[in-house]
Amino acid sequence: MNRLAALQQFLAQDPKDSFTRYAIGLEYAKALNYAEAIRTLEELRARDPNYIPTYYMLASYYRETAEKQKATAIYHEGIAKARAVHDLHAASELDAALDELESE
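User: That's the sequence. What structure does it adopt?
Assistant: Structure tokens below.
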């Protein structure tokens, strides 16, 4: 069984597990299936908006698919969420990624 299939089995056992859903999104992206990666992380963002790592990766996948406006919006949302939960390190990383995107 490959890693994606194993993760999907874990998620079937616990559909509320944000980490597993996040890992599935990363696996799709690793296979260059950005449409499924984005769909998976958008679903995670809707289910658990305080799962902060989602924002960095989701925005980066929008960047990969040349959707700069969506990436920008996700970075801004992630920065606000990270600050709201006092994750200043994540807020700083998201801010740096946003600066990089805006300078492209």
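The chain has a mean pLDDT of 96.
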